[in-house]
Each structure stands twice: as C-alpha cells, then as structure tokens.
Queuine tRNA-ribosyltransferase
Amino acid sequence: MTEPTQKMTWIPEATCGQARAGHLHTRHGVVQTPTFMPVGTVGTVKGMTMDAVRSTGAGIVLGNTYHLMLRPNADRVQKLGGLHKMMDWPGPILTDSGGFQVMSLGALRKLDEDGVTFRSHIDGSKHRLTPESSTDIQYKLDATITMAFDECPALPATPDVLRKSMEMSMRWAARSREAFVARDGYGQFGIVQGGTEKELREASVKALTDIGFEGYAIGGLAVGEGQELMFSTLDFTTPLLPQDKARYLMGVGTPDDLLGAVMRGVDMFDCVMPSRAGRTARAYTERGTINLRNARFAEDTRPITPHDDSPMAGKYTRAYFHHLFRANEILGPMLLTWHNLAYYQRLMRTIRQAIIAGNLTEVAQKLRQDWAQGDWTEDEWPMPQLAL
Amino acid sequence: MTEPTQKMTWIPEATCGQARAGHLHTRHGVVQTPTFMPVGTVGTVKGMTMDAVRSTGAGIVLGNTYHLMLRPNADRVQKLGGLHKMMDWPGPILTDSGGFQVMSLGALRKLDEDGVTFRSHIDGSKHRLTPESSTDIQYKLDATITMAFDECPALPATPDVLRKSMEMSMRWAARSREAFVARDGYGQFGIVQGGTEKELREASVKALTDIGFEGYAIGGLAVGEGQELMFSTLDFTTPLLPQDKARYLMGVGTPDDLLGAVMRGVDMFDCVMPSRAGRTARAYTERGTINLRNARFAEDTRPITPHDDSPMAGKYTRAYFHHLFRANEILGPMLLTWHNLAYYQRLMRTIRQAIIAGNLTEVAQKLRQDWAQGDWTEDEWPMPQLAL
C-alpha cells in the first residue's frame, strides 16, 4: 500500500455516553455519522432512482462485490467509469468484500487458506475470490470505502471454529491491506471477527489495529444470534476500537437495533430490511411497522405517517398504497421503498441530533415507547374526509 | 344533462394543412394540442411517479374505467377524493368508458341493447356496464373528460355488422350524454364508429354532432386494420368533424402513426406502446427503436439518445440500461418507461412547433428519414471514454 496525500478521516463532533456524532471525510463527499447506508446490490437501490435516494438524505450507499463481479463484472464497471458514474451516485460508496455473500452460498463454495472458489447463483459458472482479487475488484468498482476480505462463520459456532476462522480472516486482512491501492480520500476498513467471544474479538481488534485501517467494521453479527447477544458483544467490542476511526456494524438492522448499536458506539450501518420491506408492503413508522396489504387500510385516507419530511410526504394515502400492492403495481414497491429509506434516514438524523443535544437517553426512551405503542388510532389521528 | 357556466373548450392556435395546434381548456388545467396522453390504467402510469410523468411535459393522462371499477372500484376512488387526489395528478384526466376493454374480454362478456355483462379477469366476478353506469363510474372517478360508452367491433367486419354496431353505439352515446353530469370545465366526448366505411362514419358523426359533445373521438381503429387503412379512414372522417372541437384518435400509436394522424387533423392520442416497450427494454429514439437487452449495448457508453431534454437525460449509459434489464432490476423498466414517455412528449412538441411555424411537411419528412436511418453509428456519434 502506498500513502495518499489526503487520508480518509473521521472527525468527532459530539458524544453522548458511548454514542458518537461525527463526519467522515472522503474523496466523494462528507458523510454525517451515525449513518445508515441504503443497499445498492447490483448497481441500483432496488426500485429507487438515485435522485429519490438523495432526497431521503442518504449520504453514502453500499454496493455488493459478489453481485457486481458476476454482473455486469468488475472490468465492465471500470470501463463505465466506476460505480459512481454508472449508477448516478457521485457521493461515497462502500463495497463489501464478497466474503459474507460467498459464505452464504453454502455447498456452492469451497474454502482454502488462499481464498474461496464458488459457483455463480446466476449461471453456475466457477469463480474465485481471494483477498487480492476482492481488493482489486473493489478498486475497479471505484469504491470510496473498500472492505477487507474476510470469512464470516454462522452462529452458533464452537470457540475453536471461531478462533480458526478469525485467525484466517486476520491473515486475509493483512493481504487485503497489502493489495489496497491508496488514493486521496479513499479508504479501507478492516473487519473484526470472533463471534460472541470476548477474547477472540480482542485478538481480532489487535491484529487489525496493528495493520492499521481507515475504519473498522464489526462483522460476524446479525447472523442469527439475536439482539441481546449482539448488544452484549458490542458492549465489549466497541471500547476496544480506536476512538478516532469510524465503526461500521455490518448488516444491521431494525430501527431498535440501530438505536441500541449507536448507543454502544457504532457509526455506520447497512441493511436490506427497509428496502426489502418496501417491496412486500411493510411500512416503517414512528409507531412500528404496518402491512399495507391489510384490508383495514383499503379506505384509510391518512398518509403512512404524520411525520414524514421527505419529498414524497403527503402525496399518497394508505389506501392508495393498499390499492397499488393489491394490484401488483410496480409503483407500490417504488414508493414504499422510498418511504422506508426516508424513515431510516429520519431516524438517524433524530439520533444524531440527540447525541449533539446530549439527550439521547430521553430520545431513545421516547422512540422505543412509540414503537411499542403501535399504529395511531383514529382517535389520536382522524382520517381526513376527501371530497371530489 | 345540465349546463355548466364554464364549458370545456378547445381554442385553435394555428393550422398547417389539416394539422391543428390549439389549447384545450379544462377544469384541471390547459392542455396544449396535439397531445399524447400516457396511460395510467389502474391509477398509476406503470413504473412512473407522477412527478416523473410531469417532468416529461405530459399535460393530460388517461385512466381505464374497466380496471378501476374492478380495483379499487369507483366508490372507493370517490371516497379517496377522485383519481386526481388518489394518484397525485391534479392535471386533466381522461377516462375511457370501459367499452373497448370489455369487448376485448371475448367469451367472458355478453352484449345486449341495454349494455354488457362480463366477468372480471381478476376473480371471475360478474359485472355490468351500461351507458348510464359507465358515465356514473367516470363521474365518481372525477374524470375531467368522460368518454361515451360504445361498442367497438374487431376489424375486418362486414358492413352490416359495422352498421348495426355503430347504430347501437349512437343510441348508447345519447344515453351516455343524458347521464352526464355537467360541471364547470368538465367535458364528455362522443366516439365516432363505423369501421372503415365512409357512409357509416358520416352517419355516426351526424348522430354525435346532433347530440353535441365537448369533443369527438375516433374509435374502431388501431384494431388490426393496418396503418394504410387507418390513414385512409381518417382522411374521410376528420373533415366531417366540427372544426371547433378537439379530436381524439383512441389507442394510437407508433411515432409514425401519431405524425400521420396529426397531419390528418387529430389532436389527442393515447397508447400503451411507449410504456409497455419501456418494460421490455425497447427504447424509442429519433433514429427508430433499439432493444437494450441486445449484447451490442453491453459496453455502449453513450446515452440512449443525444437529443433528450428530460430531467433524466445524460444520467445513464446504454450499458447501464443493458445491465439493469439483464439483471431484471425494477429500475430498468422505471427509467426506460420514463425515457420513452419523454420521447413521445418531445415528438409531440416538435410536431406542434412545426404546425405553428408552418413547416410541418418538411419536419415530417426529416422525422421519417431519421426513423428509417436506424441507430447512430459510432462514426456519427462516438462513444465517450469513461475513466475512474
């Protein structure tokens, strides 16, 4: 790795307990943290124009190396000027390393010390990922943030399995760092592994900080261990991480997961939940989730939430969403993905403002109370009478 | 029918040969004619937000009575404040009468003098449409322009079949007019039938103008007769129509169909072609159509056309469209429908400006030459070299 003249830096702005507000300075713009990154799997946030993504306040999006290396493939993305130009997103992009998604292929992949061989879920063709090739692919994709290539074992796993896997991931992290081409304002994050074992997480953090990255991700969580175990793992992991670098909890989560993780010192998140839910009629609101296919919304003249400050706010009734999903119209997933991503961004802004105001504990309590309360009743929030 | 204080009016602005430019003044805004109406079948232009539809310059959209009466149903649309409020389109909306679409059900429908009984294509449930109920449904949908309920026989048909059908349509037109609730700036169009028979078209126009409508549609074309027969039918039909009322050719057509029909005195069009093509990777350009799934576009760094003046112009390469369609991403149909509708609106603006400038013949010749020439070669229009 060569040294760039301008490094990617994370600048703290305020703390509240373990929670941190800050700014991540990158080649492609400044990201306010804590931040939620919408998932743009294959060069598109499903069902969204990037103008719509921008309108929600998103500051950084994620791309998936595994999907992009298969289709359209890394060389082609490079010929198209990289992901930013290809998908109309000049802002920062983080790409995962492909490691996690290749592991999910199960029987279709074969692991060795050097890397992973696997078959494409699209056409069965054979491919290989190593720390070097994953890093090279992310270079060709023009990722603002490159992730180190790692192995992520499913939980529960024995301590011995977890240790061996973590140790290999650390060797892979060193090789990933070696392969990384440093450029002004670009960065690479190492990924802490070690499951729910404190000792392994400590060893993993030590290995990664010895190498030195622009940021640190916490991997190996949100893989079936449950929120309690995830939080207790964060409780002993985040304090081990450098104070002056961004921290990214991969693949998390529900609004309540995000809140709890921010309160444990995490700055960055990604998750398919809000976009996937948007395609299946499930809407996130300040009062929990509702399923708009439900018959009770057929003539509900209220918008999904009274609190939406996104550009699409106030334009559509719940009844219209209900109709679109019942009629299998593309516009349903389009609008509801937009709504859900806008809700996630609004939530992150609320949390960020509370960190800066120093009242995150009170705000968190109120957020949780509201989620638990469930959808607004008609007494609380009457339906507008619409006339021709 | 009661008389409104402010009628829907069509004001001529310029003519060029038979072609007319004008303004249709309605309760929901002024529409520049000639105009193309995007089809919003079931309360949504498939794959488009109405902001995107607006951005193309569309001035009026179409809704389908048959689809809307089944789902979400007319009473529900009325409770939601009508189609305008439901779908975020405060501008003018024309609804068809359901007649044409019910005819397309074939064996699922049964015709009598009073109306049509049919079974829903969704759940097989039994429904009935008459001139009175169709008009009432369109009232509940809050259609700016209501269409008279008619029967549209498939072509070819014998003169006797065409006459009987036309005569019933004219009796239905009188009943539709009787049922129409006149309101300021709202209007109702009668539909000229009679197939390709001049004498029948004359009789139909006489019957409709005796009743008196705010506009006149030409029905019974674009049902398999071919462009030549369609144009020759227009040649003797449009001169029969009142000079001071808008003329609407239903369900037409290709860019070349629109051009030829405008030159024969038609002002309004609707067709699913540009939106349907957008969902199947077919792009309309000044140089004809191209299919973006084709392998030759995989690394084509040019936009679809150099002439796009829509808000999405210049954002995406042909290669990106190719990728989106190959990966079955929703964004492909979303963006290409947008592109195609923008092309259709741009074409109508070009034609309209030529009518006003008095050089439509020359402009038409140039348009047809370009369509015939086929896609731009790389010599004519080199591919930009994109770099990281």
Notes: The mean pLDDT of chain B is 96. Residues 15 and 355 of chain B are 6 Å apart (CA to CA). Chain B touches chain A at residues 42-44, 46-49, 71-72, 76, 78-82, 85-88, 140, 142, 298-299, 301, 312, 315-317, 319-320, 322-324, 326-327, 329-331, 333-335, 386-388 (CB under 8 Å).
